[in-house]
Design goal:
306 residues; alpha+beta; N-terminal domain of TfIIb; 6-stranded antiparallel beta sheet; 7 helices; DNA-binding; transcription; nucleus; coiled coil; DNA-binding transcription factor activity
DNA sequence: CGGCTTTGACCGGCGC
DNA sequence: GCGCCGGTCAAAGCCG
């Protein structure tokens, strides 16, 4: 995975595009010169050329903005990555398998040390201390992942649409969070072992934190439902059991690049496994659709609209 | 009537 | 051993 590769590609694209338009501009200038030398240009042609030049200037400015955006994105990525690297250096042994039975202990200790407690991080993040103390490999091998749903503040339901069919089997108010936690089992397939816990974030009640345990042994029941939540923005961070939980608040990502420095990715847990970020970046980098969309977006900004 | 939700009871792990 | 706590069970109620 190499962020710079696609960034470079994009930049190359920009540069090339610049060149294309500069070529066009030069041709026009040559053409103008030719006309000015030999023939009298018509005023109509002058106007259209002037308009083209203006358009070129505008497009160049937009292109410059896009370039800056890309640069800033890359900078943000590098910052995140350096933080990760630093974290990984400080916490080299962070591959421990968590145990649900140790959760409580972890939570109570985390509540003291990390009053933020957003999204119940304490559930999936284990302190270095405890991971060193009590490794229990045989406990939960099931994949644990978290999904963050941004909901309307008025939406008090604990329903997270993820495309699967769930049956609620319990609800509990936990100690560290005044909002109740709902327990779901996958009811699409009787043999599906997946469980889900849904609870509102302590810090931001508009965010639903869904914790998935296990993996579905059946196809998604409704792919459409997964993306149909109009008022919800879902971010999935698939965490291999013990990895610290990350919240990437993409709901703000559509904002301008100026905001992107303030915009998160909101990392509720200060530590993010590098491999996770790399995986995410790799997914984007290798996704031809993403590239195509990026190229389309850039070229759509640059090409003159008819 | 079947499936789902609600909710109090129960169970087991953990700390003291 | 006891109390606390999270997780689960299961009866009752609701709804289409």
């Amino acid at each position: 995975m190499d962020c710079s590769s696609w960034i470079n590609t994009s930049l190359d694209l920009n540069i090339n595009s610049h060149r294309v338009y500069e070529d066009v501009l030069q041709k026009k200038e040559v053409e103008n010169n030719f006309f000015s030398l030999g023939l009298r240009k018509s005023s109509v042609k002058e106007e259209s050329n002037g308009a083209l030049v203006e358009e070129l200037k505008r497009v160049s400015a937009e292109n410059k903005k896009l370039t800056e955006m890309l640069t800033e994105m890359c900078e943000n990525y590098n910052t995140l990555r350096s933080n990760l690297t630093e974290y990984m250096r400080n916490n080299p042994d962070n591959k421990e398998v968590i145990s649900t039975s140790k959760k409580r202990k972890s939570e109570s200790s985390n509540n003291n040390s990390n009053p933020l407690g957003v999204n119940g991080n304490s559930e999936s993040s284990s302190t270095d201390e405890e991971t060193c103390k009590k490794p229990r490999e045989e406990t939960i091998k099931a994949k644990v992942s978290k999904v963050y749903h941004r909901t309307e503040p008025s939406d008090i339901s604990l329903i997270v649409k993820d495309g699967y069919q769930w049956r609620k089997y319990g609800q509990k108010v936990t100690r560290d969070n005044p909002s109740p936690r709902a327990y779901f089992k996958c009811s699409f397939a009787p043999t599906c072992p997946v469980k889900k816990k849904v609870q509102r974030s302590v810090d931001d009640p508009s965010i639903l934190v869904a914790t998935y345990e296990g993996e579905h042994n059946h196809p998604i029941s409704s792919q459409m439902e997964a993306t149909s939540g109009s008022n919800r923005c879902m971010t999935t961070v698939s965490v291999p059991c013990s990895a610290p939980t990350v919240t990437l608040d993409w709901t703000k990502s559509k904002s301008s690049c100026k905001e992107s420095k303030n915009m998160n990715p909101k990392i509720h847990s200060p530590e993010v496994p590098q491999i996770l970020v790399e995986h995410m970046a790799s997914s984007l980098t290798n996704d031809p659709n993403f590239r195509a969309a990026l190229v389309a977006a850039i070229s759509g900004q640059m090409l003159p609209k008819n």
